[in-house]
Amino acid sequence: MKCLIIDVVSPAIAEELGKYMEVDTKLLPTQEELASMIGDYEVLIMRVDPAINKTILDAAKKLKVIGVCSVGLNHIDMDTAKANGIQVFNAPGLNGNAVAELTISKMLELARHTVPACNDVKMYKHWDKYKFMGQELRGKTLGVLGFGRIGQRVGELARAFKMEVVAYDPYLPAEVFEQHAKSMTIDEVLKVSDFVTIHMPLNDETRHLFNAHSISEMKTGAVVLNMARGGIVNEQDMCDALKSGKIGGYASDVMEKELADGGLTEGAGFDSPLFECDNFIVSPHLGAQTIDAARDIGAHIIDKVKEALDL
Protein backbone atom coordinates (compact mmCIF):
# COMPACT_ATOMS: atom_id res chain seq x y z
CA MET A 1 0.00 0.00 0.00
CA LYS A 2 1.27 3.48 -0.85
CA CYS A 3 0.51 7.04 0.26
CA LEU A 4 1.29 10.26 -1.63
CA ILE A 5 1.62 13.57 0.24
CA ILE A 6 1.46 16.63 -2.04
CA ASP A 7 1.55 19.58 0.38
CA VAL A 8 3.29 20.66 3.55
CA VAL A 9 1.34 18.99 6.34
CA SER A 10 2.04 17.74 9.84
CA PRO A 11 5.08 15.42 9.81
CA ALA A 12 3.12 13.13 12.12
CA ILE A 13 1.04 12.01 9.13
CA ALA A 14 4.01 10.54 7.25
CA GLU A 15 5.45 9.14 10.47
CA GLU A 16 2.29 7.32 11.52
CA LEU A 17 1.06 6.17 8.09
CA GLY A 18 4.62 5.06 7.32
CA LYS A 19 4.11 2.25 9.83
CA TYR A 20 1.51 0.73 7.52
CA MET A 21 2.51 1.74 3.99
CA GLU A 22 5.14 3.35 1.81
CA VAL A 23 4.91 7.15 1.93
CA ASP A 24 6.11 9.40 -0.89
CA THR A 25 6.14 13.19 -1.06
CA LYS A 26 5.78 15.35 -4.16
CA LEU A 27 5.07 18.94 -3.15
CA LEU A 28 2.52 20.87 -5.22
CA PRO A 29 2.50 18.90 -8.45
CA THR A 30 0.58 20.28 -11.40
CA GLN A 31 -2.67 18.57 -12.33
CA GLU A 32 -0.90 16.84 -15.22
CA GLU A 33 1.91 15.61 -12.98
CA LEU A 34 -0.51 14.32 -10.38
CA ALA A 35 -2.63 12.52 -12.98
CA SER A 36 0.46 10.76 -14.30
CA MET A 37 1.58 9.45 -10.92
CA ILE A 38 -1.60 8.97 -8.84
CA GLY A 39 -2.34 5.53 -10.28
CA ASP A 40 0.20 3.91 -7.95
CA TYR A 41 -1.36 5.14 -4.69
CA GLU A 42 -4.15 4.11 -2.34
CA VAL A 43 -3.97 7.25 -0.17
CA LEU A 44 -3.61 10.92 -1.15
CA ILE A 45 -2.85 13.57 1.49
CA MET A 46 -3.28 17.20 0.38
CA ARG A 47 -4.58 20.62 1.21
CA VAL A 48 -6.10 22.78 -1.58
CA ASP A 49 -3.67 22.61 -4.48
CA PRO A 50 -3.96 21.42 -7.18
CA ALA A 51 -7.66 21.07 -7.89
CA ILE A 52 -8.59 17.41 -8.09
CA ASN A 53 -10.55 17.04 -11.32
CA LYS A 54 -12.17 14.08 -13.08
CA THR A 55 -9.04 13.37 -15.09
CA ILE A 56 -6.99 12.87 -11.93
CA LEU A 57 -9.66 10.81 -10.20
CA ASP A 58 -10.17 8.55 -13.21
CA ALA A 59 -6.42 7.97 -13.34
CA ALA A 60 -6.41 7.03 -9.65
CA LYS A 61 -7.24 3.36 -10.21
CA LYS A 62 -6.10 2.26 -6.73
CA LEU A 63 -7.07 5.34 -4.74
CA LYS A 64 -9.25 4.66 -1.72
CA VAL A 65 -8.85 7.75 0.47
CA ILE A 66 -8.16 11.47 0.07
CA GLY A 67 -7.25 13.20 3.31
CA VAL A 68 -7.70 16.97 3.00
CA CYS A 69 -5.80 18.90 5.66
CA SER A 70 -8.12 21.91 5.42
CA VAL A 71 -11.83 22.72 5.57
CA GLY A 72 -13.12 23.47 2.06
CA LEU A 73 -13.75 20.75 -0.52
CA ASN A 74 -14.69 22.93 -3.50
CA HIS A 75 -11.33 22.06 -5.14
CA ILE A 76 -12.30 18.37 -5.42
CA ASP A 77 -14.74 16.84 -7.92
CA MET A 78 -16.79 15.18 -5.19
CA ASP A 79 -19.29 13.58 -7.57
CA THR A 80 -16.56 11.71 -9.43
CA ALA A 81 -14.81 10.77 -6.20
CA LYS A 82 -18.03 9.25 -4.88
CA ALA A 83 -18.72 7.47 -8.16
CA ASN A 84 -15.21 6.00 -8.08
CA GLY A 85 -15.58 4.78 -4.52
CA ILE A 86 -13.03 7.21 -3.10
CA GLN A 87 -13.61 8.43 0.44
CA VAL A 88 -12.76 12.09 1.05
CA PHE A 89 -12.09 13.42 4.54
CA ASN A 90 -11.47 17.03 5.53
CA ALA A 91 -10.75 18.66 8.87
CA PRO A 92 -13.65 20.98 9.71
CA GLY A 93 -13.17 23.28 12.66
CA LEU A 94 -9.64 22.27 13.55
CA ASN A 95 -8.10 25.37 12.02
CA GLY A 96 -10.90 27.56 13.34
CA ASN A 97 -8.99 29.39 16.04
CA ALA A 98 -5.99 29.94 13.75
CA VAL A 99 -8.17 31.54 11.06
CA ALA A 100 -10.12 33.56 13.61
CA GLU A 101 -6.95 34.99 15.15
CA LEU A 102 -5.64 35.90 11.69
CA THR A 103 -8.94 37.67 10.99
CA ILE A 104 -8.63 39.78 14.13
CA SER A 105 -5.00 40.45 13.29
CA LYS A 106 -5.87 41.84 9.88
CA MET A 107 -8.77 43.81 11.32
CA LEU A 108 -6.37 45.53 13.68
CA GLU A 109 -3.80 46.06 10.93
CA LEU A 110 -6.33 47.86 8.75
CA ALA A 111 -7.79 49.81 11.65
CA ARG A 112 -4.35 51.05 12.75
CA HIS A 113 -2.53 51.13 9.37
CA THR A 114 0.34 49.08 10.79
CA VAL A 115 1.46 47.59 7.46
CA PRO A 116 1.94 50.90 5.57
CA ALA A 117 3.38 52.47 8.73
CA CYS A 118 5.94 49.68 9.00
CA ASN A 119 6.84 50.08 5.32
CA ASP A 120 7.12 53.84 5.74
CA VAL A 121 9.69 53.43 8.50
CA LYS A 122 11.67 50.49 7.10
CA MET A 123 11.62 51.28 3.39
CA TYR A 124 11.54 55.08 3.34
CA LYS A 125 13.14 55.88 6.74
CA HIS A 126 10.21 58.15 7.65
CA TRP A 127 9.12 58.64 11.26
CA ASP A 128 5.75 60.39 10.93
CA LYS A 129 2.98 59.20 13.22
CA TYR A 130 0.63 61.90 11.95
CA LYS A 131 0.22 60.09 8.60
CA PHE A 132 -1.45 57.11 10.20
CA MET A 133 -4.48 58.17 12.22
CA GLY A 134 -6.47 55.01 12.86
CA GLN A 135 -9.63 53.88 14.58
CA GLU A 136 -10.44 51.57 17.47
CA LEU A 137 -12.50 48.42 17.20
CA ARG A 138 -14.35 49.33 20.39
CA GLY A 139 -17.93 50.36 19.69
CA LYS A 140 -17.85 49.32 16.02
CA THR A 141 -20.22 46.81 14.44
CA LEU A 142 -18.72 43.61 13.05
CA GLY A 143 -20.74 41.73 10.45
CA VAL A 144 -19.90 38.03 10.12
CA LEU A 145 -20.99 36.27 6.92
CA GLY A 146 -20.94 32.57 7.68
CA PHE A 147 -21.35 31.86 11.38
CA GLY A 148 -19.92 28.38 11.72
CA ARG A 149 -17.01 27.45 13.98
CA ILE A 150 -14.68 30.09 12.55
CA GLY A 151 -17.28 32.84 12.38
CA GLN A 152 -18.42 32.20 15.95
CA ARG A 153 -14.82 32.30 17.22
CA VAL A 154 -14.23 35.58 15.38
CA GLY A 155 -17.37 36.96 17.04
CA GLU A 156 -16.18 35.79 20.44
CA LEU A 157 -12.82 37.53 20.00
CA ALA A 158 -14.50 40.66 18.63
CA ARG A 159 -16.71 40.95 21.69
CA ALA A 160 -13.56 41.09 23.82
CA PHE A 161 -12.79 44.31 21.92
CA LYS A 162 -16.27 45.59 22.83
CA MET A 163 -17.61 45.28 19.29
CA GLU A 164 -21.25 44.65 18.47
CA VAL A 165 -21.56 41.44 16.46
CA VAL A 166 -24.20 40.77 13.80
CA ALA A 167 -24.17 37.71 11.58
CA TYR A 168 -25.72 35.92 8.63
CA ASP A 169 -25.96 32.15 8.33
CA PRO A 170 -29.12 30.49 6.99
CA TYR A 171 -28.09 27.04 8.22
CA LEU A 172 -27.87 27.69 11.95
CA PRO A 173 -30.68 27.44 14.53
CA ALA A 174 -31.90 30.61 16.20
CA GLU A 175 -30.45 29.68 19.59
CA VAL A 176 -26.90 29.93 18.22
CA PHE A 177 -27.46 33.57 17.35
CA GLU A 178 -29.16 34.24 20.69
CA GLN A 179 -25.93 33.21 22.42
CA HIS A 180 -23.39 34.86 20.14
CA ALA A 181 -24.74 37.52 17.75
CA LYS A 182 -27.77 39.26 16.29
CA SER A 183 -29.10 37.41 13.25
CA MET A 184 -29.58 39.44 10.07
CA THR A 185 -29.95 39.00 6.33
CA ILE A 186 -26.92 39.62 4.13
CA ASP A 187 -28.32 42.98 3.02
CA GLU A 188 -28.86 44.04 6.63
CA VAL A 189 -25.35 42.98 7.65
CA LEU A 190 -23.79 44.96 4.82
CA LYS A 191 -25.76 48.10 5.64
CA VAL A 192 -25.01 48.28 9.37
CA SER A 193 -21.45 46.95 9.64
CA ASP A 194 -18.26 48.93 10.04
CA PHE A 195 -16.26 45.75 9.46
CA VAL A 196 -17.46 42.73 7.47
CA THR A 197 -15.64 39.40 7.62
CA ILE A 198 -16.32 36.52 5.21
CA HIS A 199 -16.32 32.89 6.38
CA MET A 200 -18.49 31.23 3.73
CA PRO A 201 -17.81 28.47 1.20
CA LEU A 202 -17.40 29.34 -2.46
CA ASN A 203 -20.37 28.12 -4.49
CA ASP A 204 -22.82 29.40 -7.09
CA GLU A 205 -24.65 31.46 -4.45
CA THR A 206 -21.58 33.14 -2.98
CA ARG A 207 -19.42 33.66 -6.09
CA HIS A 208 -18.87 37.42 -6.53
CA LEU A 209 -21.20 38.08 -3.60
CA PHE A 210 -19.16 41.23 -3.11
CA ASN A 211 -19.63 43.16 -6.35
CA ALA A 212 -20.28 46.74 -7.38
CA HIS A 213 -23.95 46.53 -6.39
CA SER A 214 -23.54 44.89 -2.97
CA ILE A 215 -20.57 47.12 -2.14
CA SER A 216 -22.67 50.19 -2.96
CA GLU A 217 -25.08 49.16 -0.17
CA MET A 218 -22.33 49.22 2.46
CA LYS A 219 -21.31 52.03 4.78
CA THR A 220 -18.82 54.42 3.23
CA GLY A 221 -15.41 53.60 4.67
CA ALA A 222 -16.38 50.10 5.80
CA VAL A 223 -13.64 47.47 5.97
CA VAL A 224 -13.95 44.01 4.37
CA LEU A 225 -12.00 40.90 5.40
CA ASN A 226 -11.92 37.64 3.46
CA MET A 227 -10.41 34.53 5.05
CA ALA A 228 -12.60 32.16 3.03
CA ARG A 229 -12.25 31.92 -0.76
CA GLY A 230 -11.09 34.52 -3.26
CA GLY A 231 -13.94 34.07 -5.73
CA ILE A 232 -16.46 35.46 -3.23
CA VAL A 233 -15.10 38.94 -3.95
CA ASN A 234 -15.07 40.50 -7.42
CA GLU A 235 -11.54 41.88 -7.29
CA GLN A 236 -12.02 44.57 -9.95
CA ASP A 237 -15.13 45.90 -8.23
CA MET A 238 -13.37 45.85 -4.87
CA CYS A 239 -10.39 47.67 -6.38
CA ASP A 240 -12.69 50.38 -7.75
CA ALA A 241 -14.37 50.73 -4.34
CA LEU A 242 -11.02 51.04 -2.56
CA LYS A 243 -9.76 53.69 -4.97
CA SER A 244 -12.97 55.71 -4.69
CA GLY A 245 -12.96 55.57 -0.90
CA LYS A 246 -16.27 53.71 -0.73
CA ILE A 247 -14.44 50.87 1.03
CA GLY A 248 -11.91 51.89 3.65
CA GLY A 249 -9.81 48.75 3.46
CA TYR A 250 -9.78 45.17 2.21
CA ALA A 251 -7.75 42.41 3.85
CA SER A 252 -7.60 38.95 2.33
CA ASP A 253 -5.88 35.63 2.89
CA VAL A 254 -7.13 34.36 -0.48
CA MET A 255 -7.12 35.48 -4.11
CA GLU A 256 -9.51 34.69 -6.94
CA LYS A 257 -6.72 33.30 -9.13
CA GLU A 258 -4.44 31.85 -6.49
CA LEU A 259 -4.68 28.47 -8.23
CA ALA A 260 -3.49 30.05 -11.49
CA ASP A 261 -2.11 27.76 -14.18
CA GLY A 262 -3.12 24.65 -12.26
CA GLY A 263 -1.41 25.53 -9.02
CA LEU A 264 1.12 27.75 -7.29
CA THR A 265 3.97 25.67 -8.68
CA GLU A 266 7.06 26.66 -10.61
CA GLY A 267 6.12 28.79 -13.59
CA ALA A 268 2.61 29.55 -12.35
CA GLY A 269 1.68 33.17 -11.94
CA PHE A 270 -1.22 35.37 -10.97
CA ASP A 271 -2.10 39.02 -10.81
CA SER A 272 -4.92 41.20 -9.55
CA PRO A 273 -6.03 44.81 -9.87
CA LEU A 274 -6.02 44.87 -6.06
CA PHE A 275 -2.23 44.94 -6.08
CA GLU A 276 -2.51 48.59 -7.15
CA CYS A 277 -4.45 49.54 -4.00
CA ASP A 278 -2.62 50.95 -0.98
CA ASN A 279 -5.44 50.05 1.39
CA PHE A 280 -5.34 46.36 0.44
CA ILE A 281 -3.32 43.86 2.48
CA VAL A 282 -2.94 40.19 1.62
CA SER A 283 -1.29 37.00 2.82
CA PRO A 284 -0.77 33.75 0.85
CA HIS A 285 -3.60 31.60 2.24
CA LEU A 286 -1.88 31.03 5.58
CA GLY A 287 -4.97 30.99 7.76
CA ALA A 288 -4.27 27.47 9.03
CA GLN A 289 -0.49 27.88 9.07
CA THR A 290 0.12 27.45 12.77
CA ILE A 291 1.98 24.67 14.55
CA ASP A 292 -1.08 24.14 16.72
CA ALA A 293 -3.56 23.75 13.86
CA ALA A 294 -1.20 21.48 11.89
CA ARG A 295 -0.85 19.19 14.90
CA ASP A 296 -4.61 18.92 15.46
CA ILE A 297 -5.42 18.49 11.77
CA GLY A 298 -2.69 15.87 11.36
CA ALA A 299 -4.04 13.79 14.23
CA HIS A 300 -7.57 13.98 12.81
CA ILE A 301 -6.54 12.96 9.28
CA ILE A 302 -4.45 10.07 10.61
CA ASP A 303 -7.44 8.73 12.52
CA LYS A 304 -9.78 9.06 9.54
CA VAL A 305 -7.37 7.32 7.12
CA LYS A 306 -6.70 4.46 9.55
CA GLU A 307 -10.42 4.05 10.16
CA ALA A 308 -11.24 4.02 6.44
CA LEU A 309 -8.55 1.44 5.67
CA ASP A 310 -9.12 -0.57 8.85
CA LEU A 311 -5.49 -0.22 9.90
State the total count of DSSP E strands. Answer: 12
Unreliable stretches (pLDDT < 50, length at least 5) are none
Structural class: alpha/beta
Shape designation: globular
Helix content: 25-40%
| Relative strand content | 15-25%
Mean model confidence by pLDDT? 94
Query: Separation of termini?
Result: 11 Å
Largest sheet: 7 strands, parallel
Biggest sheet, strands in spatial order?
8-7-6-9-10-11-12
Q: In angstroms, what is the radius of gyration?
A: 21 Å
Structure annotation, total helices? 12
H/E element order: EHEHEHEHEHHEHEHEHEHEHEEH
Characterize the structure shown.
37% of the residues lie in helices and 16% in strands. The protein has twelve helices and twelve strands. By secondary structure, it is an alpha/beta fold. α1 links the parallel β1 and β2 (22-25). It has a seven-stranded parallel beta sheet, with helices on both faces. Strands 2-1-3-4-5 form a five-stranded parallel beta sheet. The chain has helices at residues 11-17, 31-37, 54-59, 78-83, 96-112, 114-124, 149-160, 174-180, 186-192, 212-216, 235-244, 291-309, and strands spanning 2-5, 22-25, 43-46, 65-68, 87-89, 141-145, 164-168, 182-183, 195-198, 222-226, 247-252, 280-282.
